[in-house]
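Session log. Operator J.P. requested a structure for one protein chain; no other inputs attached. Running the standard single-chain path with token output.
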Amino acid sequence: MRVKPCNYLWLMAICVITPFLSACSDDDDKIIGEKSIILNVGDTYKVKASGSASYAVQHQFVASVNQQGEVTANHVGETVMAVSVGNETAYCGILVSPRHNLWPTPVMDSPNYTIGQVKQYFNGKYPMSATSNTVTINPQKNNVEYIRYYVLKRIDSIEVKYVHNENAKLISTLDDYLTERYDKVKENEEQNLTIYDAGPINKYAVKWWLYADDNKAKSIIRYYP
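Structure written below.
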């Protein structure tokens, strides 16, 4: 794939990343060797271009790149990088994977989901129960008691209940999981409340509260579209 350099809209036409691994064509090998880059959050990677190059990334919330070609993985997600050498530009997919997987990332990409669509999405994947306006699934892993979708005309919020025997371990584990995916924007120790911003791609907020019950540390995590 070769195009003339243009403004930042260059990626919008190609970046329905389906799948992201096909973001580069074989012709791009003359500019960069990488067709795709897979990193964990916090990793860096040096791109090797065939000449003096300029670099740009579509979603810097996911990954960023400096003009020396060093890519930094910021948050879990997918994006596309453009590498321009002279009058030619190559595109390369970047996938940032998590190191921590406590529960399946909630379905928030379409907050207009109806109760039936949420049920259909999880059907056969996990044990599930439903009422007229909730869908509750049990992922059966990692101390997660449930993930509950509250659906009125659309998804109103999503609640996750997480339990651990140790208070400090619960806090550090949740913080590791959430900061890989979102930006921490507020913390209130008196209220045991932490708020995260899911960024410009996901466009929702995440809040979680800490409390103790039955000699266990427990938390409620709420996703708000």
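Operator note: The helical segments are 115-122, 167-179, 199-202.
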